[in-house]
Structure formats: structure tokens, C-alpha cells
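Protocol step 4 of 5: obtain the predicted structure for the target chain.
Materials: sequence only (see below). No template structures provided, no constraints applied. The aim of this step is simply to have a reference model before the mutagenesis design in step 5. Sequence pasted as it appears in the construct record:
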Amino acid sequence: MMRFFPVLRRTPAKVTAIFLCGGAATVTYSLGLSYYGFWAVPALATLLLVTWPLAGGRSFLAAGLTALVLLVAFGFSLGTEPLRWEDAASTSPEPWLQVHHPGEEAPIRMREEYALAQIVSGRPSQLEAVLALAGWVNGLWSHSGSNTPSDSHPFTILEEARAGARFRCVEYTTIMVAAAQSLDIPARSVGLKTKRAAGARSGAGHIVAEVWLSDLEKWVMVDPQQAYIPTLDGLPKSAVELQQALVEQPWSVAILSLSGPVSRAAAFRYLTWVAPYLYHFDTVGDQRVFENPEDRFGGTRMLLPLGGEELRVFQRRFPLQGYTYTSQLELFYAPPVTPGG
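Step 4 output (C-alpha cells):
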């Protein structure tokens, strides 16, 4: 190729190739994985490899280094933006979420069959108990972004995982919610969707759990796919609070795991990956995960920022039906209904 494009031998052209490919690789990593899923990986490799024939092997390494520097410098700003919400309502919102009572048959069975009390034994706080549960859920199988269970019931997922099946973030979250509710910790699944989730082809959504910590009187995000809980200044955060923290104080956000805070590098990788998903937030009103889907009620509530477009279709081909939309944080983060109440 150098014979046909001799100008590329010149240093300015090499520098241009390095920065163009490095910058493109940065954007591809930060945004592409969220919008195009697996296809972003070969796209990233192609962008970097293109520098080899254009500018030589050393420039290939320089482009990779440039991409790393740009990602560290601008990774959070590529995936986040300031979001605004409606002013607080004049009256407290009514509890909306329905969860299982721990004395019901299915939670009792899960508690006993999977020795959940032993998993959280000796944990002095609710937060540490939730981290222990997240670590247990995370170790049940290895992640697969495409495999699904034969049905969505927690016991079906657990039985098939025991037989060697691997599942998605959806199933990690289902088991996390079931396990927490079995131990009398209100929990719900929360769908996270990118700003451009309507037009994305794939990879525009992620699902996490949020648990209600009564000692803190707040919802806290748990990602059981990684067994992570985000914190700021030592306080665990909800999914929306994480988004706000990544805009305002990105380098102060820490990630807790069962073994303690993860390394800065691991936290950076996770936060730059999850940041683009933190735009649309949705949850169903009936989180009784042991019930058949047709027996559950309550609809789905989506939280979107002021000025944000109501998401009516997901990834071009999945209509979102039965959704109500709000920009009130207090409404989305109302406390749960007392189990059995």
C-alpha cells in the first residue's frame, strides 16, 4: 500500500493515522459495545489494524496507546451526559412495587434448598449481606449474552444452571431478586437502556437489580453479573445516582465486591462500559418473580430525563407495550410495599 500512497510515509500522515484510528477506537469501545454489541469488537480490531499498512507497526502500537490515553481522559464523558428530572412532587408518592413475603412457599423453598441463611451468616449489615448474595449468584454460571432458559422461573434457571447452562444478565438479576426477597430484602429488576436504544441493532440494554436497604432507607443498585455495587464517598448508589455521580464526580465512584473495593482499573472498565446504559430506566410493578408472568400485574414504569424521547420500541423490533413514562425520581424510587401488605 505504501507504493500507491507514498505520502503516508511522511510523519504528519503517520501522526494523523495514529490519532484518527486511536480516537475512532476510543469511541468504538465506549459507545459501540452499547449500541452494536459483539460487532463493536471486530470493528475496534479493524480500526487499530488499519494503522499497520497505513503507517507501520510502531504506529499500530502508538494508536493503541493513544486509544488508551483518550479513553482514560474522555471515557466517562463519551458515555454520560447531565440529565434533568422533574421537581419533587408536593406529596409523597404512594408505594407501588409488589414483592414476595418471605413466608411464602417459594421463598421458603429457595431459602432452605440453597442455604441462603448460611450465605449471609455473619454479615453485620444489610449491604454486606447483599454483597454476599451477589457473589453467590455471580458464581452460579458463566455469562452468556445469548442463551436463555426454557422459562423464566427462578427454580428453572437454577436447575438448568446446575446442569451446566449459561445465561444472560436477565437471569442473574432474576436470581438476585428471588434470593433477596427470600431473605426479606425487597428487591426489583431494573432495565437500563441507552439513549439510542430504539435505533440500535443490539446490545442497547442491560439489566441489574436494585435492593431496598431499610437501614439506609434507599434503593441500591446491584449488578449480579459482576457482583458489583457502586458507591460514592462510601455510600451505595442507585442506578440513577450512579449516572449522576459519573457526570459530576466520575473519578470518585468506587465499586464494591464481596472481597472489598475492586481495583481502579477494574472499576474504570466496568464504569465506562455501563455508563451509556444509564439513560432510560424501567421496572415492572409486580416483582413477585416466583409467580407466573401472566399472574403478575402492575405494569411497567419507565423513568426518562426531561426532554428525553419516550422509548416505544427497543432495538428496532421489540415494541414496548404497557409502559407508563415519568421524569419524577421520587415516583420511580418510591419505597416498596411492605411484603404481605
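Step 4 remarks: The longest strand covers residues 205-213. The radius of gyration is 22 Å.
Proceed to step 5.
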